């Protein structure tokens, strides 16, 4: 499906976008209604959970989803969005179509109905969302071993790095200090998938604190 654009320029803010996502996930036929349960924006992509119920109160029968105890089903949807010449546009896709964008928060994934086919595109999409959410959010001073060496622009590689930051104006930007050279490198979140924490900054403050924190893990 192609991009759909609004030409009246009414979609200009986060609140406007959420209102449009809500509208797009809300409709009613003679027998069923669909309503938005939750929507989250990650980057320029909106993720939505939409609930379908039968107006007569009977359970919803669906080939993809297991009916929930209340008789409804809740499915996931992805809305790619962008602005073109000041106009907001979107491209939507239901989870069973296997969207490429897969960074939906776990809180949204947990709202979705179970799937009948364990090998479906939707199941794969949900797992990729879970995999993304499982990537650690390292703290300042944490020493990390990457799952695989990263090749830098000069052709060298690095695998052990320490989380740190640099300043650009008044803003602090996350980067990583290379163990072998002391140089700094920016790493994407995807690069941190499968990485291992070698030492924690919170435990390095003092031996007493480290022992206390170790006992709580």
UniProtKB/TrEMBL annotation:
Residues 116-190 form the DUF6927 domain. Pfam families: DUF6927 (PF21992). InterPro entries: DUF6927. This is DUF6927 domain-containing protein. The lineage of its organism: Bacteria, Pseudomonadati, Pseudomonadota, Alphaproteobacteria, Rhodobacterales.
